[in-house]
């Protein structure tokens, strides 16, 4: 409730005459979504409801733009969710979560050398250029155990490449010193406006999880190629989890209609992990559809199917549906 | 029936709120993508104005009224999805304004084409960058042809390149382009809309610069 009071107060202040300077170059929205998932193999259903506030403000002065603030607190309510994030007290819980909440100081060198402080996506692979916050469609963050984190980064756009290098706490949604986690990660890629984008990433961290921090290292190459209505994505990474070698491949092919109201995608994932004196292979496919009904409403559905899994585990087959409204 | 009623009873306040929100959608400002996906056209500004030291963002709402005013000036108007908040970038070299940049999206057979237009302080097209185009037609050859035809033209002179109904190029426009590509007309529509919207939504900013 304190979060809602804070949000409503913030909106009221933003709309008052007192804060006319604050309103300048400001965008804000309320983001609501409801998601249902059903595990077809285990006959188990779960759901989550999300209410979020999305604020974007560019700070500008006589000398030009000097900072950009993105502030996205989201209240998440889980119902019977298995394996929720460790910052939830179980699968039937509600928590304030942070999607993105940072300020990027851009006044140093006209966008070529910026300093970011706050909560942001750890720069790595395909996640860097494609927004997957709040969507069913996701990439490879689970392989590294963290999607967004609190910390600092240097980032910028140069004529031949984009970059971001970050040092973060390694604890994800909440800042925690337990087990002394950290992440040092970065990505260097060709400009994100092209039809062929190639990037190189690294990740070195001790990532906090429910049972303690796990050391993870990765090197990755990602690629995006756009041709007409088709989008092809590929991310290949290799490294280790607590010394056990591991490689990961994600490939996606997707299609949009000319209006870009329909988006269909198919993903293939492959993980190869070092076990006791042998290698374990795991692969899965994901088929998804997203429909932008109008300017406010977005409906999406996805089917995730494990093809072959690590020993003695039941293969999962999960269908999810999401309704999202932004006003 | 029991299952349905159970779902209803289990519905959270969030779900109920979602339903209420549907009722108010027709009067609310549209916001589509999450704002964390917004990117300033930094690279486009760097390429359109090499050596510039800074830019200023000016965010303004583009509403139904502006859409109607664009329709009065052009044989077409903004798409409904273009209603929302947009940014005009003032490009400065030291303390002097040297131009504006605005990025606009157009529908094409291959999805959205986003073009960043460079505009002089006296509202003439002076440059362009393809921010996003999935068609192989969007290349340097087309860009150079468009610049030959568009560069230095004001809104009125650009409008002379389009037929009265907006469905094709005028005779003057056809002299610049081969007839087998739809891209020049799409780019002309984008340039005209950019100038019209800039003059309508940021008219006070432009007037202040011209004094």
From TrEMBL, chain A:
Output the superkingdom of the source species: Bacteria
Q: Which Gene3D superfamilies match?
A: Porin
Protein name as catalogued: Phosphate-selective porin O and P
Q: Which organism is it from?
A: Neptunomonas qingdaonensis
- Taxonomic lineage of the native organism: Bacteria, Pseudomonadati, Pseudomonadota, Gammaproteobacteria, Oceanospirillales
TrEMBL record, chain B:
Q: Please give the organism.
A: Neptunomonas qingdaonensis
Any idea what this protein is called? Answer: Uncharacterized protein
